[in-house]
Write a structure and sequence with these properties.
The protein has 439 residues and is an alpha/beta fold. It has two domains: 44-174 and 314-388, Rossmann fold; 177-306 and 390-425, Response regulator (Rossmann fold, 3-Layer(aba) Sandwich). It has 13 helices and 17 strands. It has a seven-stranded mixed β-sheet with strand order 9-8-10-11-12-16-17, with helices on both faces. Strands 4-1-5-6-7 form a five-stranded parallel β-sheet, sandwiched between helices. Strands 13-14-15 form a three-stranded antiparallel β-sheet. Helix 9 links the parallel strand 11 and strand 12. The longest helix is centred in the first third of the chain and has 28 residues, at 3-30. The radius of gyration is 24 Å and the shape is globular.
Length: 439
């Protein structure tokens, strides 16, 4: 729905409310005079404006975000909401479709602010996140009475909490360099891999992944040869066979990629079709269709890094995952993100401590947030607003194999945890020079 259509819908609902009130008043004028108690006004919800691609090539990733955020907000509301100034207020998710485009995202940001949102969340695309950070910085300086805070759950270009760090921006995912370092812990011990092929999406994040892969390979495995490097358009390639053909011809023992969404699924499908049998070291190979696409060819060969995996040992982790599957029973809907749950918990905590939804007050509290849920915990680093948390690396295997109790999306394949990296070991230094508002 466009901004104009949505506003017309709001006006229509308002008009309908007026008509209902007028009719009730007219009926009441002819009825016996009976004093009725005035209904208590429900507290206004705290709007959380999600700006995400809900249509286009990456719509499936946007839909996964909706499920995760909706579940997190439901949990907060089930315990009464968030206490603000002595009043318990519910939280409400409002969706704005960016169509995966930067300009659309900026238009959505303006609409969300005009609609009264003071909390903005986004993640799928670092390019979009960078544009939102810049726009929010300018808006908050220009209109301090309508400032907003930006919570980022997936945009992992390291620059966002380094050179482009902002007082108003908080990242709850590990950035690309942190994820790469976790993968390298596994690749460092993988002596069968002597050559790699680097492939990624041609925008800031994909470029950062390939750059960091080269740097960390030189430091951790200087004996590994990079036999190919490729950047492809983001979300526009429908046929990855030419890329897969070059990949196979290179003789690479493994692929390192930060691809996500359909760009990952189509890549691994093409690799399977040309008979490539090397390993895939991925950032996002653990869901959104990739395991089902790869099938048996991925057993022992597809490695993924995440902030949490369903087969992470522990009763609390298992209970958490089962609860999500009960809420969203369709197999294809089971991509749960622990970090998004922690993000909403941290937001609720920050609002209660601030006693307000004013952006500067909330941001000040978020900067020192420490949060725990189902045995998982994390802390926001005040220096750069980069969340520090445990990372895990898993390898794909058939459901029922040792360590693989749960599969992914009903595929029959899941990920066995092979590496757990503590928050202390996962953290990396920052170059952020945070500029904080004067008041």
């Amino acid at each position: 729905m466009s901004v104009q259509q949505r506003r017309r819908s709001i006006l229509s609902k308002f008009a309908a409310t007026l008509l209902f009130s007028a009719a009730s008043f007219a009926a009441g004028a002819q009825a016996p005079s009976v004093a009725a108690p005035a209904p208590a006004l429900a507290p206004a919800p705290i709007r959380v404006a999600m700006i995400e691609g809900l249509s286009g090539p990456f719509a499936n990733t946007g839909e996964a975000v909706i499920r995760n955020l909706a579940w997190a907000l439901e949990r907060v509301n089930q315990r009464g909401g968030v206490r603000v100034g002595g009043v318990m207020r519910p939280m409400a998710l409002e969706r704005y479709d960016s169509k995966g485009q930067t300009e659309e995202a900026l238009s959505a940001l303006r609409a969300a602010i005009d609609d009264g949102a003071r909390i903005v969340v986004q993640g799928n695309s670092s390019a979009v996140a960078a544009a939102l950070i810049e726009a929010i910085n300018k808006h908050n300086e220009r209109e301090p009475q309508r400032r907003v805070v930006f919570l980022n759950y997936s945009a992992v270009d390291p620059i966002l909490t380094n050179e482009k760090c902002s007082f108003w921006h908080f990242r709850f995912d590990a950035h690309a360099d942190m994820r790469m370092a976790a993968l390298m812990r596994v690749l460092k011990e993988d002596r069968a891999t002597e050559s790699v092929y680097l492939i990624g999406q041609d925008y800031s994040f994909g470029q950062a992944v390939l750059r960091e892969a080269r740097r960390q390979l030189a430091a951790q495995r200087p004996d590994v040869k990079v036999v190919g490097e490729e950047l492809h358009p983001l979300g526009r390639v429908r046929d990855f066979l030419p890329y897969a053909t070059k990949l196979k011809a290179s003789g690479a023992h493994a692929v390192i990629t930060g691809n996500w969404g359909n760009d990952l699924t189509l890549l691994v499908r093409a690799a399977r079709e040309v008979g490539y049998d090397g390993k895939f070291y991925t950032f996002y190979g653990n869901a959104l269709g990739a395991p089902a696409t790869i099938g048996d060819a991925g057993i022992g060969r597809v490695i993924a890094v995440a902030d949490w995996l369903p087969n992470l040992p522990g009763a609390q982790s298992e209970t958490f995952y089962r609860a999500f599957r009960q809420r969203f029973p369709k197999p294809q809907d089971d991509y749960v993100h622990m970090r998004m749950q922690l993000m909403i918990e941290a937001l609720a905590q920050a609002i209660e401590r601030a006693g307000s939804i004013e952006a500067a007050a909330v941001a000040t509290q978020l900067a020192g947030a420490r949060v725990e849920l189902s045995g998982q915990r994390g802390a926001m680093r005040a220096a750069d607003h980069q969340f520090q948390q445990t990372l895990v690396v898993g390898v794909m295997d058939r459901q029922g194999a040792p360590g693989v109790k749960f599969d992914v999306e009903g595929s029959g394949y899941g990920f066995r945890v092979i590496q757990v990296v503590s928050a202390d070991d996962a953290q990396l230094p920052t170059t952020c020079r945070m500029i904080r508002p004067a008041s």
